[in-house]
Every structure is written in C-alpha cells, then in structure tokens.
Amino acid sequence: MSPIILALLPNGLLMCLGALLRHRFSNEVWLSIDKLNFQLLFPVLIFYSAASRKAQLDDVLIIGSGALSITLLGCLLAMPLRKLQQGPKKFLDFAGIWQTTWRFNTAIGMIAIQALPEESRGLMSIAIGFAVPLANILAVLVLSHGQSMSFSRTVKSILLNPFLLASIGGLLASNIDIHLILDNTLSSLASAATPLALLSIGASVHLKVLMKINLFSFSINSIKLALLPAITLFSCKMLDMSNEQCVILTLFAALPTSSSAHLLAHAFGADRHIVATVIAQSTLLACLSLPFWMGIIIP
User: Fold this and answer.
1) DSSP string over 119-176
2) What's the pLDDT tens digit per position in 137-181?
3) For residue 286, what is the enclosing H or E element?
4) Are 81 and 100 in contact (CB under 8 A)?
5) 289 contact partners, CB below 8 Å, separation of at least 6
6) Do 169 and 47 form a contact (C-beta atoms < 8 A)?
7) pTM of the model
8) Which residue has the higher pLDDT, 44 or 205?
9) I need a surface site. Which of 50, 165, 175, 260 has the fewest CB within 10 A?
C-alpha cells in the first residue's frame, strides 16, 4: 500500500469514528469542540508550524508568490459554480463551500512532505506561511458578504480572525532567534487540533450523503484535487522552475481542503453540514489523488 495512503488512512478512520459517535454526544458537545478548535487549537497549530521553521529568503519570492497564486486561482476557478442548480441556494452556504477550493489541509501537507528529502521540507512551510493569511482573508470576505456585514464589521472580522493572527504571529516568531519556552505545550495543543476536527466532521456527515456526489460537489473536488495541481505543474514547467520548487508547489496545490473550513463556516452561520460533507469527500478522495500527483512529480 502507498505510504501516502497509509498516512491519510488515519484521517478517514477518525471521521468514521466521529460518525459512530455522533449520537453518543449531544449537538452542543460537537459545537463546543468546533468552538475550541476555531478559537484555540487550530490557531496554535498554525502558529507552531510557522514559528518552528525559519523561512529561507532566497526561496520566499518563488514559493511564496506561487502559493499566493494557487490560492487566488482556486478562488477564481470555483466562482462560476454559483450558477449550478445542484449548489446551495443561499449565498452564505455557497460561500461556506466555495472556500474549500482554495483552503488546504496543513496537517496532511506536513505529512506528505515526509516523502521528500529533508532539505526540501522547509519549503512547504514557506508556502503554508504565505497562503494561510490570504486563504483566511478570502474566506472571511466571502462569508461576511454572505452575511451582508458592513464594511467596518468585515474588516474587524478579518483582522481579528484567529487563523490570520496565528499565521502572522508564527511568521514573525520564525524570524526571531529565540527558544520558545512553551514549545512542548504548543506542540501538545497543536497535535490535538486535527484529530478533534476530523471527529467533529465525521459526526456532522451522514455516510449515505458522503457517497452522493452531485455535479456541484464533483466540480468543487475536481478543482481542488485535479485542476489546481495540473495547472500548477504545467506553469512550473513553462516557467522553468527548479525541480524542487516544482515538487513543493504542485504538492501544495494537490492538498485536500482544510479540515477547519467548517469551523469558519459555522462561525459565520453557514450550513456546516454541507461544508463538512465536502471536506470529508475531499479528504477521502485525496487518498487516491495525492499519491497520483506525488508519483508524477517526485523523481
């Protein structure tokens, strides 16, 4: 069995476990887990990932600009899907799903790079560090638009978003040559974020619905798992980038969507169940698509 499939398999099992535990706990418990993840655990994971890997200045321009371009491209490619009849009727619910085309699973990205040489792994943290702020700004913008927020409330939501604050703080901390006294505490909190999020996603998704992929969800997943990495790989070759840079950017583009996307959707009042379904589909389909892309790009 592929090492990547083995690495992704625990994520699928955790979602299945969440589905089995759905009725063992009240809805308030699952909502509290979502709130804990949104306000504490995922911000710690983002901060810790960025702060623990110092960015190399000579790679920042290419990898950073590439990650920003991939994020924007995912947003633009999915915009026309609003017109599909199979999609959500309310713009707010569409915005909750729309964000899944440009957001990415940081945890799976950190797992996938273990297949690369050690000297290449730091480049993924550059991509993540640059893309996280933009991904969250775009997500807050479209979700706040769905809520018909005023301009001042939209700006406030963006500036006070825990994911944005954590990513900026992590990038700043990575360039300060200090030892984090709370390193072990941050590491423990960060390691709890993904398992709890996957359990909550599983509890939000009915497995029968998971298997019913319509044209809308198929298009969303195709953009994230097939079209984005294909365009990225082609662009890297056309721009004559180094093989190392091409591998990192294509792998970044091929990552399944973020397991925290449903947290932000819920925070803005969008339907978290349909967002959780798309996240689950993306994560499970990545068990096939991610090994495929890694087989193409890794020599």
Assistant:
1) HHHHHHHHHHHHHHHHHHHHHHHHHHHHTT--HHHHHHHHHT-HHHHHHHHHHHHHTS
2) 888 888 887 665 566 766 776 677 777 788 778 777 776 655 556
3) helix 272-297
4) no
5) 225, 226, 254
6) yes
7) 0.76
8) 44
9) 175
pLDDT band at 7 (very low <50, low <70, confident <90, very high): low
**Backbone angles phi and psi of 176, in degrees to 5:** -105, 120
CA-based nearest residue to 62, from 177, 208, 232? 232
Distance CA 228, CA 109 (A): 15
Q: Please, is 34 exposed, middle or buried when counting C-beta atoms within 10 Å of its C-beta (0-12, 13-18, 19+)? A: buried
Residue 248 near residue 123 (C-beta atoms within 8 A) = yes
Rounded to whole angstroms, the Cα distance separating 92 from 102 reads 17
Quote the CA–CA distance of 229 and 294 in Å, as a whole number.
11
Residues in Cβ contact with 58 at an 8 Å cutoff, skipping those fewer than 6 apart: none
Q: Report residue 23 as tokens.
A: 């009725």
| Residue range 246-281, pLDDT digits in tens | 999 999 999 999 877 887 888 788 888 888 888 888
- Which two three-digit tokens encode residue 276? 């959780």
Tokens of 103: 């957001």
In degrees to the nearest 10, what's the CA dihedral of 96, 101, 105, 109?
Answer: -170
Q: How wide is the angle at C-alpha 67 spanned by C-alphas 93 and 43, nearest 5°? A: 60
pLDDT at 184: 77
